[in-house]
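Dear support,

I submitted the protein below through the web form. The confirmation email said the job was done, but the results page showed an empty box. After a refresh the structure appeared. I'm attaching both so you can tell me whether what I see now is the final result or a partial one.
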Amino acid sequence: MRTRTLSTPKSLLLPCALLLSAAGPAQADNGLNVYGFLNAGAYYLDENDISIESYESGSPQFFNRDTMMGLQISKEISERTSATIQLTAKGEEDFAVRTSLAFISHALNDSTDIRFGRLRIPFFYYSEFLDVGYAYNWIRPTGDAYGIPFSDYNGADIIKRFSFDSFDGQIQLNYGRRDKEIVLFNEAYESELNNFAGATLNLYMGDFGLRVGMQQTQMTLDSAADAQTLIDVNGGKDAQLALYDLTVSGARRIDIAQTYATLLTSGMSQKTQDTFSFDDKKARYYNLATTWDNGDWSFIAETAVINFDSGLYVDNFAWLASLAKRFDALTIHTTYSTSRDRLDGGEVGKVQELMMLRGEDESVTLGMRYDLDEATAFKLEATHHMEETNQGLPGASGTLYRAALQLVF
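What the results page shows now:
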């Protein structure tokens, strides 16, 4: 399988590919390979009234965001079968050690592999290398287009590599489920993502690459929200006052939103009322990416579209475009990204508008990467983030400054 990264020297792609792709068993004298990666970062956000991917304003922060360590162990069981486990510890999770990947890989033949276990969901162009900051120019990909709050699932996939004419390609089919917490708006929710299924196609021809993917799941999210119960508990207070009591009590954002939706949809059709829940609702994700890299210049454009059957989580359209120029060990890059929510039509859209669910923002990033050696990169970047709309109201703008040292070993 050919693997490309934005403005990363092609000679440096192999360590990254060995880290997270498992198209075949790792090769070592004793069949055991251990790989690792480390990201160490610091940041400063210059504006108090803006939210940028959970970065906090104030004094410069060191090693709590953009900082993590990963260790991957791969053991060859037979000529065609291997076992892989990856452990990660992230600063934003207080460096708790988690099992990110754990799977068995079996080569059905020279061009087809099947994997079982905990796998990476192929949402993005950089999904397989998402935690390995060394694999791309940014300190981390922009949250506008890379904003999915989880990256793994339990299940299986099959990968078929092929060539025809001047094209190299790969098709990946995946299926499984995920029964773990999801963090939304910095709050944890128990969730079930059933029938997680998707397909991804990658094509390469010379300096050009194309990726097309689609994922779908049936999502259930726990919610402790019921308007009538709130009214009863609050001694017969009116619904709006009960909602206010819920808000000031520190209730989770989605619980508040679902309660508000229950109040607003009272008297509307049953279909509209049922829409505003997270009970077994479908979510669909579509991805399109195109790349070009001639060794000196490189470019990537990537689009992500998310469609929800639940009216509590609005549909979203996001994309990014990034251009980079390499000067030996130094790479200069710039990126534009944007994320825009799209309200539904009819009664559902009117309720979403009353709930002020819409958000629209854009970011411009200027950064540099300097390869200190064949496995270590130092990065600096500044991102100016502009909120056109935040929860239905005019937003703010601010600049995020970041520095990081990222390596593989």
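Response: this is the final, complete result; the empty box was a page-load delay. Residues 1-27 have pLDDT under 50 and may be disordered.
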